[in-house]
Amino acid sequence: MNVETATETVDPAQGSCPAPLTETERVLLGHGSGGQLSASLIRDVIVPALGDATKLAGTDPRGEVHGSGGATETSPLEDAAVLGLGVVDVVVSTDSFVVSPLFFSGGDIGKLAVHGTINDVAMMGGDPLGLSLAFIIEEGFPLEDLRRITASVGEAAREAGVPVVTGDSKVVDRGSADGLFITTTGIGRRLPAARLSAALARPGDAVLLSGPIAQHGVTILSAREGLGFDGDVASDTRPLHRLAAAMLDAAGGSVHVMRDPTRGGLASALNEIAQASEVGVVIDEPAVPVPTPVAAACEMLGLDPLHVANEGCLVAFVDPGDADAVLAAMRSDPAGRQAVRIGEVVADHPGRVTARTLIGAERIVDMLIGEQLPRIC
Amino acid sequence: MNVETATETVDPAQGSCPAPLTETERVLLGHGSGGQLSASLIRDVIVPALGDATKLAGTDPRGEVHGSGGATETSPLEDAAVLGLGVVDVVVSTDSFVVSPLFFSGGDIGKLAVHGTINDVAMMGGDPLGLSLAFIIEEGFPLEDLRRITASVGEAAREAGVPVVTGDSKVVDRGSADGLFITTTGIGRRLPAARLSAALARPGDAVLLSGPIAQHGVTILSAREGLGFDGDVASDTRPLHRLAAAMLDAAGGSVHVMRDPTRGGLASALNEIAQASEVGVVIDEPAVPVPTPVAAACEMLGLDPLHVANEGCLVAFVDPGDADAVLAAMRSDPAGRQAVRIGEVVADHPGRVTARTLIGAERIVDMLIGEQLPRIC
C-alpha cells in the first residue's frame, strides 16, 4: 500500500470522517476515545461554547508569547496550559480517570491518576510541584478499596516527589457512578529551557520514543475481558517528569515537542503533532518497540499496537543536531532505558503520519476515529 | 435550652458521633454531606492513607510558614492550598460537581462549577487567574445539554474574568455515571494582604456574613422533589472573588478567616472554624438573614436554614477594630450589599458554636452528622 492509494479511502488531514458533530445528538462512547471523535467533541462542542472564556484569542500557538497576569499561551487541544504569573510561568493540567477495572496488573486508578497528571505537566516542560485530588465515589463503595487506592495515590506521589496539596470528595447515590472516578490537576513551574508545544515540530526533527508501547491498553483489555494475558503483561504506568527534565537539561531549546501517547496510542499523538505543526511524520515501524507478549495479544485481538494506550512512555521531536545527545540523556534515566529513534519529520504530506513497514512499503498511520476500548484511563 | 444541657446529648467537639469510620465497611451517602461524616472520611480514610504525601508534616497551620519550592502551609481540611513558588504564592483549589438536577432556578452545574472553585480560591486570599475543566460524561448524554452547560461555564468564566485554561473530557458507558459530572480546579495568586486560615480566628473577632443564606439548598430540593418553590427561590450561585478582594483591600491583616458555607451550610462552616481555631463562636440567630420564601420552605420541610447549602455567600472573622470598615467594604460590592454582623468569637466553649435565639435562649449549633440532601453541588 502506498500513500496515494490509501489517501483515496481515508484522509485524516481533511477530516472527511467522522461526521460533523452537529448532526449527532448524543454523546457516544467514541467521544472519549482520544481519537478523532474526541477531538471533534472538543473542537465542535466545547471550545465554541466556551467562546473567549479560554482567553486564547490573539495568542499564537507557535510563538513565544510570554504570558503575564494570567495570560495563556497554549492551544485548547494541548494536554496542559502555561499560565504566566509575571515572574514565573505555571503549567497546569487536569485529567479525569474512569479506568475499569480499578485494579490491574502493574497499577490501579490511584497510581494512574498521579502519573497521568504529572506526565501531562512534564510534557509541557513543567516541573510538577503539587497535585489536587478529587474523588467522585459511588454510595456503597468498599472503604477498604478506597483506602487501598488512596494509599496508592500517596505512594505514587511520594515516589514522584510531588505532594497532594488539596482535594475534594463527593458521594453520589448507588447507580449514579461506577465505583470511583478520580480527577487530578497538576501544577508545575515551567523549566527555564522549556518552550514546548505540539505546534513546534519542524522538518528534519528526529522522532524519539522513550520505550516499548501498547502495554497499558493490552493489560486493561486483558483484565476486563478475562483474556488471561495478565500474567505476561503489565501497565507501563510511571512518572516521566525526571526523564523529561533530563532531556531538557541535555538540550533544552532543541526539544520542540514532548507528548505522552495515552488514549489513542502513539498514532494519535503523532497525528495531533503532525496536524498542529503542519508537517509530515514518517516512522520506521520495525523500530517501534513492542514487547513480545503485547505484540502477540495485539495480533490475536486484531489491534494495531500504534493505536493502543500507553501510560509510561513519551515521544519527543528533537532538532537532528542534538538528537543523539537527547537520546543518550533518555537512556541514562530509568524511564528511558530503551529509548530509540523511530522516525523523522518531513515537509511532505503535512498533517499526515506514515510508517515504513518491515517489507519497505509505506502505509498511512491514521488516528482512531471512534472507540477502540472505552475507560482505558 | 442552655449549653450545658445540650452538651449531655451531643458534643460535636469531642467527636462522640458519628461512629468511627474503621467500623463502617462501605461509603455512605452521608460521607458526601459536608458534615461530620465527610470530615471523618477525610480524617480517618483519606489523610492517613496519603501519609506524608501531603507534605504537611512539620508545617504549622496557625503560623506564617511562607512556603517555598512547592511547600504547602495549609491543613488538609481547608478547601484550598497555598503552594509557595519562591517568588510567588499560588493558591490551588479543586471541587467535583455532581449536582442533580443539572439545571435549576438561578443556575446550572456549569455555572456552579466555575463559581464554586473561584470562591474556594478567593476564600484563601487568592486572586483567581485560571480554571481547569474536566468533564465525565455518560454515553447518550444530549449534546444540546452539553453545549448549553459549556456555554454557561464560558459565560460564568467571562463574567468573573477567570479563563478556562485547560481541560479534559471522558465518556463512560451508559449507566456508569448520571449524565454529567464536572471537576474544576482553580489557580490563583495569593493577594499580598492575605494570611487566611480556618485556624486563625481569635476571641473578640467579629463574625460577618455577606448576605442571605439557605437559598441554594432549598432551590435544589424544590427542583428535585417537585415541591413547587422554584418560582419563589433561586440559587445564590455567584463569584465572590471581587468581594473578598475588596475586604482584604479594606483591612487585609485584620481578616483572619474567610469561608463560603456550601455543603453543610453556615453551621458546618462555623463549626469547622471553631474547631480549627480552638475558640467558641456565638451568633445572634435573628441577625442571620433568611429570605421569607426560603424560611417558609425550611419550616415546612423541617430544615434548619443554618444547615442548608449556599453557593454565593461568605462568612468572615475579622478583628473587632476593623469590623466596621470591612463591613462597609462588603456593602459596597454587589455580592455583599446585604452584609451583616452576625456574632463574635469567644474564649468560652472552644470548638463549639452557639446561637442566641429570638427569645434570648442559647442553643448549640452543631454540624450535620450525615446527609441532609445529597448531590447539592
TrEMBL record, chains A, B:
GO terms for biological process: protein maturation. Residues 78-189 form the PurM-like N-terminal domain. Residues 202-354 form the PurM-like C-terminal domain. Transmembrane segments: none annotated. It comes from the Bacteria. InterPro entries: HypE (IPR011854), PurM-like_C_dom (IPR010918), PurM-like_C_sf (IPR036676), PurM-like_N (IPR016188), PurM-like_N_sf (IPR036921). Gene3D superfamilies: PurM-like C-terminal domain (3.90.650.10), PurM-like, N-terminal domain (3.30.1330.10). It holds the Pfam family AIRS. NCBIfam families: hypE (TIGR02124). Belongs to the HypE family. This is Hydrogenase expression/formation protein HypE. The lineage of its organism: Bacteria, Bacillati, Actinomycetota, Actinomycetes, Jiangellales.
